[in-house]
Amino acid sequence: MKVAVVYASVYYGNTEKVAKVIAEVLEADLYKAWEVDPSTLMQYDLIGFGSGIYFGKHHKSLFKLVDRLPQVEGKKAFVFSTSGIRRIPIVHDFHKPLIKRLRKKGFIIVGEFSCKGFEDYALFKLIGGINKGRPSEEDLENAKKFALKIKEICSRE
After folding, report:
1. What is the largest CA-CA distance in the chain?
2. CB–CB of 45/81 below 8 Å?
3. Distance between CA atoms of 18 and 27, rounded to whole angstroms?
4. For the chain, how many helices (H) and strands (E)?
5. CA-to-CA distance for 54 and 31, rounded, in angstroms?
6. Which of 4, 23, 75, 143 could form a disulfide with 30 if both were Cys (CB 3.0 to 4.6 A apart)?
7. Is the pLDDT score of 38 beyond 60?
8. What CA–CA distance (Å, rounded) separates 125 from 155?
């Protein structure tokens, strides 16, 4: 199975750390969202899309990339993120907009991963930021476990 991980990590490299761990486990090619051509991604069986969360959504470069992708049939994808606050499905599910757009393109979503990341935006800057040291070693270990689970799911199909 040929795998790509596409990410946007803009400020502190939080998401890049997670993307690299996932890519290593999945033996995936790693691309920055603003550098990869949509046609390049069509050669992959599984594509991961991730970024930090900005105002409740993934980075705009991921949405722009997904919008430029052609319609697919049954291609698998997963979504991941880092954020200053915890993701709470239903209440505060910041993966939902990206997943919705991927599904509209024909992708089958096989998993989601999220962990906290250091943030010092706006008021958080006044207190020196929140989530210092995140993603932590434990977070990165959880990202590895997530990638192994994705590998298992995709190998069964």
Report:
1. 49
2. no
3. 14
4. 6, 6
5. 20
6. 23
7. yes
8. 44
Distance (Å, whole) CA 81 – CA 112: 8
Report how far residue 37's alpha carbon sits from residue 30's, in angstroms, rounded to the nearest whole number.
13
Residues with Cβ < 8 Å from 38, sequence gap 6 or more?
65, 68, 69, 70
Residues 104-140 pLDDT 10s: 999 999 999 988 654 555 454 444 544 565 578 888 9
Report if pTM > 0.70.
Answer: yes
Bridge partners (DSSP) listed for residue 51: 8, 81
Nearest-5° angle of CA 150, CA 96, CA 132? 75
Distance CA 145, CA 52 (A): 20
CA angle 152, 155, 157 (to 5 degrees): 115
**pLDDT surpassing 60 at residue 71:** yes
CB 79 within 8 A of CB 95: yes
